[in-house]
Amino acid sequence: MRFRFFFLLLLGSLAAGAATAQDGQTLDEIVAVVEGEIVLRSDVNSLMASLIQQQQAQPSAELWNTLLGQLIDQKLMVINAEDDTTLAVTDDQLSGELDRRIAGLTQQVGGEQRLEEIYGQPILQIREELRGSIREQLLADAFQRKALGNVRVTPSEVKAWFEQFPADSLPTIPEVVRVQHVVRLPDIEPAARQEAVELITTIRDSVLTSDATIEDLAKFSDDPGSAENGGRYAGMRLSELVPEFGAVAATLNPGETSQIFETSFGMHFMRLNSRVGDVIDFNHILIAIDDSRVDRGPAVEYLETLRDSIVTHNVPVELIAKRHSEDSFSSQIGGYVVDPRTQERDLVLEALGPLWTRTLTTIDVGEVSEPRDIELLDGRRAVHIAKLVKRTPAHLVSLETDYERIEQLALQEKRGREREKWLSRLRENAYIRLLAEDT
């Protein structure tokens, strides 16, 4: 049984007051109504299961009720934001946040395949499942920023906030770095690619010339999200597919089987079942290329040339990363490496892992490393050059060395107080009916 499904069942059985069928199975139910909009028990359970999967919480009635309150507040903010014509969530914002969220989850659980195993769904369906809730969250965040964006802290407030903590309780900050990098993917050995081509060609020929179907042969697919259900994806938007896959899907008529084509995942062929607008239903088979069989040489040479442009000709790393880096996550922000959950650029060196540590201990602030191996957030092996922008040695936290960080914490606390006052006013003017709580 899938990990996520197990926890949803577990949490459903813990939730008090749930409706039950004659066989005792827990059913979904409305747990709150906010201005005519409903919050379902499954909404709370899914949020709680996500926190558990990320090892950020343990299941409890107290946590369940807290999350219910958060969803009620978010629903209230979304309802108010929908009436504000100055606020909107663009497709680019939504796609960017989906990319960031998936990258963060992938990093936390140890790769895309592990994420698909935990959710019991392929990446595309995980994105689709998250789309609605993330749009609401972005809209609520925009509404909140508009209401609380002018909250500030003065230097005296920062000092007073910091001085409330006893000197002997102050923590030691580990070594922190700020880095940029430019990434190139090594060339797959031709023999490895050819093996994948030959295998998928054999499978496609079997589909076209024998009684075997894609559904029958999908058991040989390297796509863990669809191999068990005949390679099928239903209700996928073309915009949700990687560009190469979407381009092929857009050219097919229902019932047609494509030629073999390549994406960053490997070699594919697909059969289009139906298309309504930009929403498609299809089956496909993927044969991955063995990415352990690579030739690093071309990537290293390419990066050496880019490094020379940076070091000798003073071309900004930001420009090089945006034009040449093959890590789409960092290239969009000038090559900066950030925490995918918080977007924080100052990162604990030890948390970056041994490959980063070995690279950054060989260079000083302002220097650019020679090409080195790296593992990307999605688990792919790559080669990169890294620039050490800033290094802060391990030290006892103080106003002198950590003012910006302390200021943000003080501001966060002040905004939290102001947020609660603001939400209380919204609640007072809204119809909210609580129908169930966990006990």
Description:
The chain has 439 residues and is α+β, with helices and mostly antiparallel strands. The protein contains 16 helices and 15 strands. The chain has helices at residues 3-14, 41-53, 61-82, 91-109, 112-119, 123-148, 155-163, 190-209, 214-217, 243-251, 297-311, 317-324, 328-331, 349-352, 354-360, 399-428; strands spanning 30-34, 37-40, 172-173, 176-184, 187-188, 232-237, 261-263, 266-276, 279-287, 294-295, 347-348, 372-375, 381-392, 395-396, 432-434. The strands form five sheets. A four-stranded antiparallel beta sheet has the order 11-4-13-12, sandwiched between helices. A four-stranded antiparallel beta sheet has the order 6-9-8-7. A three-stranded antiparallel beta sheet has the order 2-1-15. β12 (372-375) and β13 form a beta hairpin. α3 crosses α6 (123-148), α4 (91-109) crosses α6 and α7 crosses α16. The longest helix has 30 residues, at 399-428. It starts with a helix and ends in a 5-residue tail after the last strand.
User: Low-confidence segments, ≥5 residues, pLDDT <50?
Assistant: 1-26
DSSP summary: helix tally: 16
| Cα Rg | 25 Å
Number of strands: 15
State which percent range the strand residues make up: 15-25%
What's the rounded overall pLDDT mean?
86
Give the spatial strand order of the biggest sheet: 11-4-13-12
Main sheet record: 4 strands, antiparallel
Amino- and carboxy-terminal Cα gap: 27 Å
- Look at the helices and sheets and give the structural class: alpha+beta
| Overall 3D shape | globular
Instruction: Tell me the helix content.
Output: 40-55%
